[in-house]
Design a protein that fits this description.
The chain is mainly α. It has two domains: 3-17 and 133-219, Orthogonal Bundle (Endonuclease Iii, domain 2); 21-127, Endonuclease III, domain 1 (Orthogonal Bundle). The chain contains twelve helices and no strands. The chain is globular. The structure holds iron/sulfur cluster (SF4). The site of iron/sulfur cluster has 14 residues, from α12.
Length: 221
């Protein structure tokens, strides 16, 4: 078993969860869920997602919807005005260029307005069940601290490194495990190293400094 497989096993025992609504349905809904989720908490993304799809069931109805109505339905998410515009544009593009079906190729997905590498990989992974890894800010931070990806690596390099280090059987799980671990323990600015379940695997040099600071804070609350 590789070091990273051991890490994933530990994380799986502790951070496995039911997936939020916006990433567990058909590819079109996963794609819209990804647009909604940027810089927004899962609970607010799910609220907006459910309100939106209660009224507009598919790409065709969203493409024809009034922008102001989309805005009203997705108000719980941050940047809802920009996201409403993106959703309408993406739905229209899918109708016009792909006959209403979300494409299965990464290159074609990235032609859709508002869809970058991360959302394309989310759709491939969660929508189509392909063994690809989507990299968000938590995934990137954790992968670098655990020595899976080099410190200066950008999106594509981080993605490749995680995919190479992850057995096929765990590819579908790795994104969500690292996201939840990143949110709960390995925050970008304030990691809780003193309670980290994978401390021994971490190569981040600041970890001891964090542990000492956290111990001191506990002694002198
Ligand atoms: S020891 Fe700290 S920095 Fe390293 S993985 Fe754990 S929480 Fe993240």
């Amino acid at each position: 078993m590789t070091q990273f497989s051991k890490v994933l096993k530990i994380l799986e025992e502790r951070f496995s969860r039911d997936l939020p609504a916006h990433i567990k349905e058909d590819p079109f809904r996963v794609l819209i869920g990804c647009i909604l989720s940027a810089r927004t908490k899962d609970e607010n993304t799910d609220k907006a997602y459910e309100a939106l799809f209660r009224e507009f069931a598919d790409a065709r109805s969203l493409a024809q919807a009034d922008l102001s109505r989309i805005q009203a339905l997705i108000k719980p998410v941050n940047y809802y005005k920009t996201k409403a515009k993106r959703i309408k544009e993406a739905a229209s593009f899918i109708i016009e260029k792909f006959k209403g079906r979300v494409p299965k190729s990464r290159k074609a997905l990235m032609r859709i307005p508002g869809i970058g590498p991360k959302c394309a990989d989310i759709v491939l992974s969660y929508g189509f069940g392909k063994p690809t890894v989507a990299v968000d800010t938590h995934v990137e931070t954790v992968a670098k601290r655990l020595g899976v990806a080099p410190e200066r690596a950008r999106y594509e390099e981080v993605k490749r490194a995680i995919e190479q280090a992850t057995p096929l059987s765990l590819r579908a799980r790795v994104n969500d495990l690292l996201v939840v671990f990143g949110r709960e323990i390995c925050h970008k600015n304030n990691p809780k190293c003193s309670v980290c379940p994978v401390f021994e695997f971490c190569v981040w040099e600041g970890k001891w400094k964090r542990v000492n600071a956290q111990r001191k804070a506990m002694k002198n609350p």
